[in-house]
Amino acid sequence: MSRKVVALKMSREELRRAEVDEKERTAEQGTAAGLTGRGLADEEPSGDQISLSEGDAGDIRLERIVFIGRTYDEYLRMFNLKPGDLKGRTVLDCPGGACSFTAKARQIGIEAVAADIAYQFDPAALEAKGRLDIGHAVQHVESLGDQYRWDEFDGPEGLRSERTKALTATVEDMEQHPERYVAAALPVLPFADRQFDMTLSAHFLFMYSDKLDYAFHEQTVAELMRVTKGEIRIFPLVDQSSRRYEDIEKLLTFAAGNGWSAEERPSDYEFQRGASSMLVLRRN
């Protein structure tokens, strides 16, 4: 029996337990994502974002991972980038989840690497879990229809299609090039100082300010600054209810004190209403 078949069989048993856990957490918190935090007012999660704060990847179980991500094209719009802007440069996607940015970027000469706590699991198991999560996420977001701009995807099935496309591309690339997908638990990353020209961070920082305190945000930004040579882009600047992160000025003061300038820029991407700008940090 192949390694992939074994992994899929294992994942089905884990996913049966996950469905029970998610139903219980939904009753307690009103979200299919439960303790992982994504999927409240945000469209859906990207990796096990809340568990990143626990700082011990070895303690995470598959059922606590929510493995969903955006496509490469969404990233370009989200961060106002053009392929030519990044060609030949080193780029970190953190946390990467099931985002297909790294897979597609590598095809056009961008030296992209993704980091996420989810990458400790077998790709086949993550694919199975991701398909389950996509179903939960689309159903949840559809129930909050007026909080989203559906012209981005032409309805729930369009969203499902894009999320599945991102998941499939990511898993295929993980299987072929596992070295591009690094298991890591923020706020600590296993990379050298200034290893990447640019870091992109989507739908994590600021989005979960009710669960991740200011100290975690500061530690995470400090770590992203440590591993980044030139520029960091973070999207969006609001939480799951589209409230602006209340400690943003404090965080910018911290960044300035460490030699980084900050600028808020509009994004060409808005699915969650109000999530339409990004923070750009540049090393002075």
Automatic annotation (TrEMBL):
Name the InterPro entries on file: SAM-dependent_MTases_sf (IPR029063)
Compositional bias (Basic and acidic residues) at which positions? Answer: 17-27
Please tell me whether the keyword Transcription is annotated for this protein: no
Task: Report the domain of life of the source organism.
Answer: Bacteria
Show the SUPFAM superfamilies listed in the entry.
S-adenosyl-L-methionine-dependent methyltransferases
Protein's UniProt keywords contain Cytoplasm: no
Query: What are the record keywords, sorted?
Result: Ubiquinone
Where does this protein have compositionally biased stretches of type Low complexity?
A: 30-39
Residues covered by region (Disordered): 17-54
Protein name stated in the entry: Ubiquinone/menaquinone biosynthesis C-methylase UbiE
